[in-house]
């Protein structure tokens, strides 16, 4: 049975960012990402038509107006904790330089390489440097709260059942 302090279910953009955040605030935690497909960040590769739309300058002021929600306060609160500027700083700290696309004044921010695959490669390299355990083709079937934390039952691509503790 593998044991982790934090298990992140899903290796998309949000899952990767969650892993980075956990390691930033708790560098000593054992962190794992469980992804049911064969690769992390697959949707990143198609964002911005393969150019990787990282964020949007218009989120700097009143980001809640750009999301369809019954509760714009949640969006405002989220961006007060991790703002447009924080997003840019994160990518720049990873060595990903950016530019703002000027057509249509839409505020879209892209990497200067215009290559989503470069962005994903840098993010995956950073995960490796942080010793984040990546488990691919591992589908979570059940979560059970226990006295010790959570028991996470998974099925691997080979059909075998596995137990993990978080």
Q: H/E order of the elements? A: EEHEEHHEEHEEEE
Helix content: 25-40%
Percentage of β-strand residues? 25-35%
The low-confidence parts are none
Q: What is the 3D form?
A: globular
Structure annotation, total helices: 4
Order of strands, main sheet, comes to 1-10-9-8
Q: Give the tally of β-strands.
A: 10
- Sheet of most strands: 4 strands, mixed
Radius of gyration: 18 Å
Distance between the termini: 11 Å
SS-derived structural category: alpha/beta
Can you give the mean pLDDT? 89
Give a written overview of the molecule.
This protein has 166 residues and is an alpha/beta fold. The chain has helices spanning 13-25, 72-81, 84-93, 116-129, and strands at residues 2-3, 6-9, 31-35, 55-56, 98-100, 108-111, 133-136, 138-146, 149-156, 161-165. A four-stranded mixed beta sheet has the order 1-10-9-8, with no helix packed on it. A three-stranded parallel beta sheet has the order 2-3-7, covered by helices on one side. A three-stranded antiparallel beta sheet has the order 4-6-5, with helices on one face. The longest helix has 14 residues, at 116-129. The model has no long low-confidence stretch (mean pLDDT 89).
């Amino acid at each position: 049975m593998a044991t982790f302090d934090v298990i992140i279910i899903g290796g998309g953009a949000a899952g990767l960012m969650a892993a980075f955040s956990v390691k930033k605030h708790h560098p000593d935690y054992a962190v794992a990402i469980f992804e049911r497909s064969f690769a992390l960040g697959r949707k990143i590769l198609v964002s911005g038509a393969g150019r990787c739309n990282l964020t949007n300058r218009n989120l700097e002021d009143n980001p809640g107006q750009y999301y369809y929600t019954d509760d714009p306060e949640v969006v405002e609160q989220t961006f007060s904790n991790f703002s447009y500027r924080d997003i840019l700083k994160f990518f720049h700290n990873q060595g990903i330089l950016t530019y703002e696309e000027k057509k249509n004044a839409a505020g879209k921010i892209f990497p200067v390489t215009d290559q989503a695959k470069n962005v994903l490669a840098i993010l995956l390299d950073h995960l490796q440097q942080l010793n984040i355990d990546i488990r691919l083709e591992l589908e979570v079937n059940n979560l059970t709260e226990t006295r010790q934390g959570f028991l996470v039952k998974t099925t691997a691509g080979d059909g075998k059942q596995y137990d993990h503790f978080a």
